[in-house]
Amino acid sequence: MSDFKGKLFVFSAPSGSGKTTIVRHLLKQEKFNLEFSISATSRDPRDFEKNGEDYYFIDLSDFKNKIKSDAFLEWEEVYRDNFYGTLKSEIARIWGLKKHVIFDIDVVGGLRIKKKFPNETLSVFVKPPSVDELKIRLKKRKTESEEKINMRIAKASVELATAPQFDKIIKNYDLDVALKEAEDLMSTYLGLDK
User: Would you say residue 2 lies in a domain?
Assistant: First the structure.
């Protein structure tokens, strides 16, 4: 690991809550000195996704070998044979750039990172207006089958119950308000609002 030990900003939420939109917005704010933590996954890339940019796409057996060799900071089998994780080398890469790390990650992974780096991590849960609204947002994406959407909705109910375990909760009912709230949280945590 680098001599520089930056902060870790974990944004977690059920699929369709708007966490990715918030994270992309924060990455554009130069004052925060952020770099995106690219997750690894064993799933196939979607048409528009690029390896090493959206995810590190790793085949299933290689992913399992990396688990055995303790290459991950955290990992989870999100759906059957569908693994996601954060490679330790990814944090080292970002701290090597002398930047803070921002994660767009599922709730289980987010809480694991907070547990491993309790003093460096700000964990934020992005709460959607409702489960019904989530379903509408997921359908609008047109990236997944009805079956996959239903799996995500079922998972969302479980994920929503973990919200109190996070440091902060942003209610994403109005995107502009949520973006401002996220910026304010970052500024406070980094001491930029003094």
Answer: no
* Under-50 pLDDT residues of the chain: 1
DSSP letter at 71 equals -
Question: Cβ-count burial of 22 within 10 angstroms (0-12 exposed, 13-18 middle, 19+ buried)?
Answer: buried
CA–CA separation, 129 vs 107, rounded Å? 17
Contacts of 142 (CB under 8 A, 6+ apart): none
What pTM was estimated for this model as a whole? 0.87
89 domain residue, yes or no: yes
Question: pLDDT tens across 116-126, in order?
Answer: 999 999 999 99
Contact 65, 75 (CB under 8 A): no
Taking only the tens place, the pLDDT of each residue in 148-179 is: 888 778 888 889 999 999 999 999 999 999 99
* CATH number for 95: 3.40.50.300
75/45 Cα distance (integer angstroms): 18
